[in-house]
Design brief:
Radius of gyration of chain A: 18 Å
Largest sheet of chain B: 5 strands, antiparallel
Shape of chain A: globular
Largest sheet of chain A: 2 strands, antiparallel
Helix content of chain A: 55-70%
Strand order of the largest sheet of chain B: 1-2-3-4-5
Structural class of chain A: mainly alpha
Strand content of chain B: 15-25%
Structural class of chain B: alpha+beta
Number of strands of chain A: 2
Strand order of the largest sheet of chain A: 1-2
Helix content of chain B: 40-55%
Number of domains of chain B: 1
Order of helices and strands of chain A: HHHHHHHEEH
Number of domains of chain A: 1
Number of helices of chain A: 8
Radius of gyration of chain B: 21 Å
Oligomer: heterodimer
Distance between the termini of chain B: 65 Å
């Protein structure tokens, strides 16, 4: 455990970036990346849950008995997910309507439980915070990249997060490549992006 | 044995703290969420069917307890008189309940307009009941007591093409709203004057 907090943070941005390197959390990745706004919204919600649960679990790691640790992790994670769900309803209702069931499903996102089990349960608070933040931001960036790719090709638009403004990229004559915004299109995009990442990594 | 009790106590404590925390958050956000739901789910439909009213129906609202549920009523002011109320009722559609907002003129008991609020109908087919204004317009101007049904069932309503079940659901919702209206009219009038 000689790694510094900075290293724990940066590993989430490239070396272990989800969902490309850790091929976890594919359900929301495939489902919500139809538009940039949805992708970033999902990423931010997951980051919040990841950071909070990592910090709390690493604080409580000596209190939680080994035998019931998974149950305790799930309680912590589910609590934060519900908090996110309520906050999103209160402050970003249109986004909540678009993400729908995928917000409560963060509870069963393997990235969150995976980081709790593999990292936060064995490390102190600061590295856990850095780890959660790094993986979370990495996840958000991945979703953003994937959704930009899919939205631009699949519907010819780019929806900016926060403002909700929809920009037309190719102009009105563009015939949408609608395969890209369907679930199989997400698989193909994900595969191609992973391929490019591996090619870059080899050099 | 001691171990077992410890496991039990830890999980119970975790759950209790989590439950308490969530109850607090829920309480703190409940009001805000209700406003958001009104604005984004019911708001657009209300604006559409009460078009041209001189007040803000989303703020001018009251609740009436009807058995186990409570219904929101939105007041519309036309020509200086608070003579219209809009409220939501439900009918069974193809993919679940369809919410229909019905606006009724309190003086003539006529429908001012209807609009679908929430639904889970097939996109592009049943969903046209919400987006095609021609369908909803058939109800406007008719007496609320009319027994609406689609033409396939011997009624007078032209169904959205390919979506008879959805259209039937909307009719059921409007007929149900007539039921609510006649049952609660006295209370509605009391609330508007008060």
């Amino acid at each position: 455990m000689a790694k510094s907090a900075v290293q724990e943070f940066t590993k989430g941005l490239w070396a272990e970036i989800p969902p490309f390197r850790l091929v976890l959390g594919l359900c929301p990745t495939l489902a919500v990346t139809k538009s940039l706004e949805n992708g970033v919204g999902m990423g931010v919600a997951t980051t919040f849950v990841l950071v909070c649960s990592n910090v709390l679990i690493s604080l409580l790691r000596n209190v939680i008995p080994k035998k019931v640790r998974i149950a305790c992790f799930i309680i912590v994670i589910a609590t934060f997910v519900t908090v996110v769900e309520l906050l999103m309803q209160a402050f970003a209702y249109p986004l909540f309507l678009k993400l729908g069931i995928f917000i409560p499903l963060i509870v069963v996102n393997c990235i969150v439980l995976g980081r709790a089990e593999a990292f936060a349960a064995k490390n102190t608070v600061i590295p856990s915070l850095a780890d959660g933040l790094g993986i979370g931001i990495g996840f958000t960036l991945s979703l953003a990249a994937l959704s930009v790719f899919r939205e631009v090709l699949g519907s010819g638009t780019l929806t900016l997060p926060l403002t909700g403004a929809s920009l037309s990229v190719f102009g009105p004559a563009f015939q949408p490549f609608s395969f890209m915004v369907e679930a199989p299109g997400a698989f193909v995009c994900l595969g191609l992006m992973l391929c490019v990442m591996n090619m870059l990594g080899k050099k | 044995m001691r171990d077992l009790i410890k496991l039990f106590v830890v999980v119970a404590l975790f759950s209790a703290v989590a439950g308490g925390l969530l109850a607090k958050v829920r309480e703190a956000t409940a009001e805000k969420i209700e406003i958001q739901q009104l604005t984004f789910v019911k708001g657009p439909t209300i604006d559409q069917i009460l078009e041209g009213c001189s007040n803000n129906p989303l703020e001018d609202r009251f609740k009436i307890e009807d058995g186990e549920r409570s219904i929101d009523f939105f007041i519309g002011e036309f020509d200086g008189a608070r003579n219209t109320v809009a409220f939501e009722s439900f009918g069974k559609g193809f993919g679940g309940d369809i919410g229909v907002m019905v606006a009724v003129n309190l003086e003539t008991d006529e429908i001012v307009g209807i609009g679908v609020t929430t639904h889970s109908e097939t996109p592009g087919v049943g969903s046209k009941a919400k987006t095609d204004p021609g369908f909803a317009d058939q109800f406007a101007g008719q007496a609320i007591t009319e027994a609406f049904s689609v033409k396939a069932d011997g009624g007078s309503v032209d169904a959205v093409s390919g979506a008879t079940i959805t259209s039937r659901g909307v009719c059921t919702a409007v007929v149900d709203s007539a039921d609510i209206y006649s049952r609660l009219k006295d209370e509605i009038l009391k609330n508007i004057e008060g």
